[in-house]
Design a protein that fits this description.
The chain is α+β, with helices and mostly antiparallel strands. The protein is 29% helix and 36% strand. The chain folds into 2 domains: 18-150, 2-Layer Sandwich (Ribosomal Protein S5, domain 2); 156-234, 2-Layer Sandwich (Alpha-Beta Plaits), CATH 3.30.70.240. The strands form 3 sheets. Strands 1, 9, 10, 11 and 12 form a 5-stranded antiparallel sheet that branches. Strands 2-3-8-4-5 form a 5-stranded antiparallel sheet, with helices on both faces. A two-stranded antiparallel ribbon has the order 6-7. It is elongated. The two termini are 36 Å apart.
Length: 239
Amino acid sequence: MTIPRATPGPNSYTTLAAGPDFRHEISIKRSRFITVLRRVGDEPSARELLAGLRREFYDARHHCSAFVIGADRAVQRSNDDGEPSGTAGTPMLDALLKREARPAASPTAPAADLSDVCAVVVRYFGGILLGAGGLVRAYSESVSTAVDLAPLVRRERLKLFRVAVPHGEAGRLENELRSAGYVMTGNEYDAVDTQIGLAMADDETVIAAAVARLASLSAGRHTLSAAGTDWVDTPQTAR
């Protein structure tokens, strides 16, 4: 089996787990700060979140936002939405960019690599001025606390494979592969076989070990078929 070389650039980063928006609220001197986090893959998706929250919280004074997108975090935007310049959007973006995770491959080496995340902080003014420093702290804390509480995952660029197995054998073999630590990516079905999907690092040693493990589990009857490369959420959290 010929395995293409890995694509240059980052091969993993931290992001929000797939699912509904995450919300968290704090109160500071009677002002309410409602933080909403959404996993986004492009700028239009981030702006869609902001537009939706403007409609939902139409009576709020401010809808400040920040987002970072891409494995290399190339897209970074922020907006103060009427707060004094630099007191809302910038500290929100900094909170996203500086959030450190410990990747499973190097748990002792924290990395600031959070991406594909949009944060919007809706503020209801409580009547007490916070001052520039107070606003910076409030918006930073709002986003930092929400990110710390939100469900996070590693997103890794992995090699995809398929294993064609008769329907009656698929459940057992899939469970064996899952128990062995492989990331399962879903199955496809035809009239005869189940195509079990799995993913692993683009590393010749890792792939060779998977080939050997599959041969052992199936008495040599089944083999891996390469199915490309893609970004895959891996099950461990990024805490």
